Amino acid sequence: MSPNGTSWNFNRYALKKVPYTIKRYTDEAKRLHYVSNGALEESIDEFPNLKAWIARIGARPTVQKVEMYPLLIIFKN
Prior knowledge:
Elements: H1 3-13, H2 19-43, H3 48-59, H4 61-65, H5 69-72
Helix pairs in contact: 1-2
């Protein structure tokens, strides 16, 4: 299970809430998202077709309604 999935499991479904475990896996998931975001910001210009595809997907009305849409804004410019 990925750290993000593990974090979700401990935060939502664990029968016994262990604060140390919840904090550890939540912090690791945040760290991984930060690292991934940095890598994507630096490399997206190397892939103009991917950048254009993300922009097209993000322009769709249905996609704009979903919860994850703010993540696509990163690639819009």
